Amino acid sequence: MKLADARKDFYRRLAHEQGFRSRSAFKLKELNQSYRIIGPGFNVVDLGCAPGGWTQMAVRMAGNQGKVIGVDLSYVDEIPGAHMIQSDVSDTGVADEILEHFGRKADAVICDLSPQVSGNWSVDHARQISLNYDCTKIMDAVLSHKGNAVFKVFDGEFSMEFRDYVSKKFSRINLTKPKASRKQSSEMYYVCLGFI
Question: Is position 152 annotated as part of the catalytic site?
Fold first, then answer.
């Protein structure tokens, strides 16, 4: 068994043991330990949240005083402590619904989304980056001054362009890959701190 497979199984087992819907919950946990994207009492928006692992972890991080909203095109089973919105991230009307639910702006916007993967790498990469641009439109409308954001990015020809676009909106941006990511995976995360 390769080390990458062993690690994958470790996080999958951990997710199962701790009641998380996906191993990706540990990516958010690790990112938050490094960068404190989400703190107690935060309002958090999880864009492209299915199956809900990040939403579950965000609820835990925001605590009883925080509020978490998960948005996805697919139906996602209820998550205790989170409000779910079934909608497309390209629908900017979602922003109004988010603000109405929170009653104020969000402190963090997190995006771990992925398109339905076709197997054609350049198509999947382009679609994934395009979805991230959709998410930034919602983020622009709902994120508070000095708020934080995280975007998963499939590394490829449009990654740097997206990074340049997002970096103009934040005081600091970090490129990172959590240990819970598969070694062979091309995914990276842009951790964006201090929304301008």
Answer: yes
The catalytic residue among 152, 169, 179, 183 is 152
Contact of 30 with 179, CB cutoff 8 Å: yes
Q: Which two tokens stand for residue 76?
A: 């996602």
97-104 long-range Cβ contacts below 8 angstroms, 24+ apart: 98/45, 98/69, 98/71, 98/138, 98/142, 99/141, 99/142, 101/67, 101/69, 102/43, 102/67, 102/69, 102/142, 104/43, 104/144
Q: Classify 170 as helix, strand or coil.
A: strand
- 181 confidence band (pLDDT: 50, 70, 90): confident
| pTM of the model as a whole | 0.94
The 10s digit of each residue's pLDDT in 43-75 is 999 999 999 999 999 999 999 999 999 999 999
Answer whether 153's CB lies under 8 Å from 123's CB: no
Q: Following DSSP, what letter does each residue of 98-139 receive, concatenated?
A: HHHHHSS-EEEEEE-------S-HHHHHHHHHHHHHHHHHHH
The DSSP element (H or E) to which 194 belongs, if any, is strand 187-195
Cα separation, 130 vs 175, whole angstroms: 19
pLDDT digits (tens, 9 = 90+) for 92-139: 899 999 999 999 999 999 999 999 889 898 999 999 999 999 999 999
